[in-house]
Predict the structure.
Amino acid sequence: MLNVKNISKYFGKNKILNNINLNLYKGEIVAIIGPSGSGKSTLLKCINALEVAQQGIIKIDNASLDYSKYTKKDMLCLRQKSAMVFQHYNLFANKNALENITESLIIVKKMSKEEAIDVATMRLKEVGLLDKANFYPHQLSGGQQQRIGIARALAIKPSIILFDEPTSSLDPELVEEVLSVILDIKDTTMLIVTHELHFARVLANRIIFMQDGEFIEENNSNDFFLNPKHKRTQSFLQKMLMRYKNFH
């Protein structure tokens, strides 16, 4: 399904990803957590070829990209296998909700306009926003914009959806509506970078703790939270749980 092999990424002399390896299987949901600056978002972008790594191989189904030698065709084939849901929505400001979804279906998937509208309508209904089809991004709340982003990702029927901190830009009262939509599509293969620990625990099959560009600990969701092995993981979870208690 998804195979990440020996991915390393540098910005200047700073090593952002250090020889990352990951396998994700069809129907599986994996959450990556960790402190800011640990390389989580960069990893997602390398998987989707939005960032170029210095070394390593990404495979999704039958599409493969070797960062030591690749073509534009390799990059395009890989991108067509996944969809990204971004922190800041990345919707087209000059297009309404329906058009934001049909755009990639018409241009990338080569659908007819009528077919694209049918698919977009179905996905808008799925995320509870069919009544907002003609609304533009500036007319929608942050939560609604993110749900449009999820509908857009679902519409292209990717092998995997990559979520990059999907709730980090939202006001607290809007977080639940987005998390609820993601829970409703839990049969989809997903790799999620998130700081929402409770959400990760409920949704994910596996949790990975990442720091300084490396995977420090990995386990099934239940054992990860109940019995973390690594001192860095233990410290991180204690701090996050304390912050949650203080906030509430």
Observations:
- The chain has a mean pLDDT of 91.
- The longest helix spans residues 231-247.
- The CA atoms of residues 141 and 174 lie 8 Å apart.
